[in-house]
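Exercise 3.2. Students should predict the tertiary structure of the chain below and write it as structure tokens, then compare their answer with the key that follows.

Predict this chain's 3D structure.
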Amino acid sequence: MTLLRLRTLSKTFEREPVLDAVSLDVEEGSILCLLGPSGCGKTTLLRIIAGLEIPDTGTVYFDDRDMATVAPHLRNFGMMFQEFALFPHKNVLGNITFGLKMQKRPRREIRARAKEMLSLVGLEGYARRNVSELSGGERQRVALARTLAPNPRLVLLDEPLGALDKALRERLLLEMRDILKKVGVTTIFVTHDQTEAFAIADTVVVMDRGRIEQTDTPENLYAHPATASVALFLGFHNLVRGRIEAAGTMSTDLGILRLAEHGVPTGRDVMALIRPDGARIREASDQPDEGKTIISGVVKNCLFKGRNYHLELQTGTGQVLAFDISNESRPADPGQLIELILSPEAVVVMTDSLVEPFT
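Answer key:
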């Protein structure tokens, strides 16, 4: 069931467009992540949903109700920010029960709900603790408990882990997803970090310059970025222009690349991504080259990354491609001329990234 529907939302600040006709559906009980670089419009979109900003055009529907005339405090949405915004003069219990007291819930209900929330976030025994005495991870859990305590129908999280160090972020991500799923609350999570998005979301929405570039599951987004800007934002830089030819091939400056299924008509000019994990070094024992895609070049760098080697290959066209090669043994040294064999699945045609005619 679609709980939240956004239709053609646009917003301009000081004549600069921040959102450009954004439309989006959010399913009940799902965790949706708005992912994109700073300034792409994701936080503005979140604030419009919360009622803290008014769109220039467009409509927010929640449970089929137009929210234009509903004040932010009447929407029954929970919000949590990067700074946590805990009340320093209140202890853990006081912070968690704040929203419940504002709703004038019965005292017995408030106590029971606070106890439930403390258990949910793993902070039993912390009720009387001063928030200034808590670690960053503990403060984050208190903030989440305070957000969930009033039983909101929608939770809005704006970079909630941004103030934490990397190791703690990675651990708390899994805990946060588990808590949100256990509660079953519909959630919109804003981040610029793809690792966070992939770890916590059911659906990822990639934004750029106020527009939605792609909406997909984390797995499909990673495997099949739809546009060059999405691929670059995800850290993929092996982009090549070319033309779709017959028999599942693509002609490029690098030569003929063999493709997996792509659905693009023959003769179309497109951009393609060569996945960094889709290549291996050609060995003398390999069978003849028929049916294989071979790329040759000079090794610029070969860096040990633990699980693999990060290899940079400068091709004859001058383009530098990056690959992750098995770490069974050091694959190559800088200055060495090598050949790589690509799997068909390594070449991803970005069907939404048609380009000017390839010459």
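Discussion points: The longest strand covers residues 2-13. The chain has two domains: 2-227, 231-354.
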